[in-house]
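tool=predict chain=A
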Amino acid sequence: MIYGRNAVREALRGRRRVHTVLLAKSEGAKELELKLAEWIAEARSGGALHGAPPSFERLTPEELTARLRTPDHQDIGAVVDPYPYSDADAMLRSHGLLVVLDGVQDPHNLGAIIRTAEGAGAGVLIPRHRSAEVTGTVVKVSAGAAEHAAVAKVRNLADFLLEAKKAGYWIYGAAADAKSVYTLQDYRYPTCFVVGSEGEGLGRRVASLCDVMVSLPLAGKVESLNVSVSAAVLLYEAVRQRAGNPARAGQE
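tool=predict ok
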């Protein structure tokens, strides 16, 4: 299940079917139902409404909180199909800009990274184990961007990075102690950024497969940035560079 207004709206416009919309019987219920009708019409006109329109279930706020297992629902949730993960091999061929997450287990960080990656036109790769998955919390934190983003699971990150190298990608690992500053690299070719877990950084094997380790210089007293912030800085440096030379931005 998913929850939150942006999450439900984007799910209606996205790739998976929304079976049932759960609504709280609250003071703003009428206004929310009008918005929901607009979202459904918007999805239908865009050709994104899959199957029959969703049914509706009205619950007390307490019942909705219990059903969704969170009070952070903004009076709306939905029963949806399982999340449609993308194919990693297809992503290698089509994107040209990727971010690989090595052991990122906080769903809030995953959601924030997915939101940034979708905005940057980048694909997201996560391992099948030792990683957060795309859950209702992740969709909520991403403001619904997860419903449109390309997110793939891979069995082994090291094997994927080897395949990325064969496909012509340059692999850039993020590390606080790296000697090379991230702005000194050329990201106009197929680029794969690798960011590590909140506490441990990149695993040794994954780090060994990076072509270049880069750092984000810090002027204050903090020793590192949140992983989602680091990913955003790296991705949008690539976007900035490619905006000036789009002919080299994709696969060659």
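Residues 247-252 have pLDDT under 50 and may be disordered. The chain is about 35% helix and 20% strand.
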